[in-house]
Amino acid sequence: MGRPRSFDEDEVVRAAVKLFSGRAYDGVSVDDLVSHLGVHRNSLYKTFGSKRGLYLIALRRHLADDVRPLLDALAGASDAGAALRLVTSADLDLLLLAAAERAPLDEEVAAEVKAALAAVDQAIADAIGASADLAAALTAAALGIILRGNPANATTALAQCLGPLT
């Protein structure tokens, strides 16, 4: 009989979200997971199956813990500027890394990313009464602002320009 599990799976998944958010999938080795998460290699494989298995669980946790609350907050957005500020202030690091790094290579990750981005688009469209195309463009602009680190306070400038559109 094996030893009982000596770690909290929920804590390990939360820690994995942080690790993958900061270094992306390819930047995290199994040794990194073992040392940063405090889980023995055998326990990691027994519990999560593989590095990819843990990554998918971490991505889904990120979507539930970070993207879902954003969707709820977007429901109360009064205009495009408010929606833009909500998206640019959300913690979407793992979603962005997954979109850029893993989605082109992994159909399951691609499906999760696509669904999450479609949900953001829909939440914006519903909240501000925008067309699907305008909502998708707003999402794309917000994600670009996050990727660029909000250069020259782009969020405020873009929010001012969007006022007449919605």
Describe it:
The protein has 166 residues and is mostly helical. 74% of the residues lie in helices and 0% in strands. The chain is elongated. The protein starts with 8 loop residues before the first helix and ends with a helix.
Write the layout of secondary structure elements.
Layout: H1 9-23, H2 30-37, H3 41-48, H4 51-74, H5 80-89, H6 93-102, H7 107-128, H8 132-148, H9 154-162
Helix pairs in contact: 1-4, 1-6, 4-7, 5-8, 5-9, 6-7, 7-8
Keywords:
about 0% strand, about 170 residues, 9 helices, elongated, mainly alpha
Strand percentage: under 5%
Can you give the mean pLDDT? 91
Summarize the biggest pleated sheet.
none
Structural class comes to mainly alpha
Oligomer: single chain
N-to-C span: 63 Å
Helix content: over 70%
Helix tally equals: 9
Please trace the helix and strand order, writing H or E for each element: HHHHHHHHH
Which spans of ≥5 residues are poorly predicted at pLDDT below 50? none
Tell me the total number of β-strands.
Answer: 0
Sum up the overall morphology in one term: elongated
Question: What's the gyration radius in Å?
Answer: 18 Å
Please sum up the structure shown.
74% of the residues lie in helices and 0% in strands. The chain has 166 residues and is mostly helical.
